[in-house]
Amino acid sequence: MEQLSAKEIKELIEKGQSLNLIDVREVDEVAMGKIPGALNIPLGLLEFRMHELDKSKEYVLVCRSGGRSGRACQFLESQGFKVINMAGGMLDWEEEKE
Q1: What's the rounded Cα separation, in Å, for the pair 15 and 3?
Q2: Has residue 96 been placed in a domain?
Q3: What is the pLDDT of residues 3-61, one digit of tens each?
């Protein structure tokens, strides 16, 4: 599974690269702040909402520390999706949140 650090993700955003970010934390966690533009799909609902995703796109998965997003990556990879785990999660995200 491919992984990028929060700093590497920030650099890609600053370069203007369009990223498809999915935050797999629970709704109450996301309410405290998420990466601007990230779509919230809690890990427990991912299996039921993956029809909303496009297999031709690559997704960056985010959670609090990188564990849940890692599990989400493994699941989506097994379903044929291209995914990247943001290692360190929101604990390492020092940038703006919405």
Answers
A1: 18
A2: no
A3: 999 999 999 999 999 999 999 999 999 999 999 999 999 999 999 999 999 999 999 99
Residues spanned by the domain of 74 = 2-91
Q: Which of 27, 63, 22 is nearest to 39 (CA)?
A: 22
Domain-located, residue 98: no
Is residue 63 flagged as an active site residue?
yes
Q: Is the pTM of this model over 0.90?
A: yes
Of 6, 35, 61, 63, which is the active-site residue?
A: 63
DSSP 14: H
- Total count of domains within the chain: 1
